[in-house]
C-alpha cells in the first residue's frame, strides 16, 4: 500500500510540474507577442504577472483557454496605466543600452564621471522596476502611487529585490554566453523568471492585502 501511494504522489507531482511548464510556455509566448511593439511591453508584463499570481495561488483550475482569456483581459484593463508606467523606464533602459553599445565600440568616448552616474542610475531604476508591474497587476493605484509603493517595497525588501533583478538578468547572461540555451530561453526566458519573481513577491503582497483587510475592518 505504501509503495502504491508513493508512486501516486510522484505521478501527481510530475503532472503538476508538466501543467506548470505548459502554462509558462503559453504565458511566455503571449508575453513576447504582446511586447513586440516594445511600448506595449508594460501592459504585457502586467498581464503576465496577473496570470502568474493566479497560477501560484491556484485560485482556479485554469485550462489553456482560460489562461489566454485572463491574459488578454488583464492586458486590456491595464494597458493605459501600465504603458504610462513603462514608457519612462523604457527610455531609461534604452539610454543605458545605447551607452553600453557606445562603450563597447569606443571605450574612450565617455569619461568616468559620466559612466559611473549613468550606470548607478540604470541599476537603481532596474531595481525599482522589479516591483512596478507586479504592483500594477495586484493593486489599484494611480501611476504615481504605484511608483511610490514600488520604491518603498524595493527598499524595504532589498535582498529580495536584488534576487529578482538577478533572475531577470540571468536569461540575458545565458543568451550571451551559452548558445545551446537559446531554444530554452525562447520558450521560457520571460515567463520562468517572472514565475520565480512572482513567488518572491507573493508573500509581500499577501502581507499588504492582510493589512488592507484589517484597515477596512477598522482594526
Task: Explain how this protein is built.
This protein is an all-alpha fold and 219 residues long. The model has no long low-confidence stretch (mean pLDDT 85). Helix 2 packs across helix 3. Helices cover 85% and strands 0% of the residues. The chain is globular and about 55 Å long. The chain starts with a helix and ends with a helix.
Task: Specify the helix fraction band.
Answer: over 70%
Gross morphology: globular
The biggest beta sheet is recorded as: none
Low-confidence stretches: none
Number of helices: 8
Structural classification: mainly alpha
Question: What is the averaged pLDDT score?
Answer: 85
**First and last CA, distance:** 50 Å
Give me the Rg, rounded.
20 Å
Task: Quote the beta fraction.
Answer: under 5%
Key features of this structure:
219 residues; mainly alpha; globular
What secondary-structure arrangement, pairings included, does this model have?
Elements: H1 2-34, H2 41-57, H3 64-105, H4 112-138, H5 143-156, H6 158-177, H7 182-188, H8 191-216
Brief summary:
Helix content is 85%, strand content 0%.
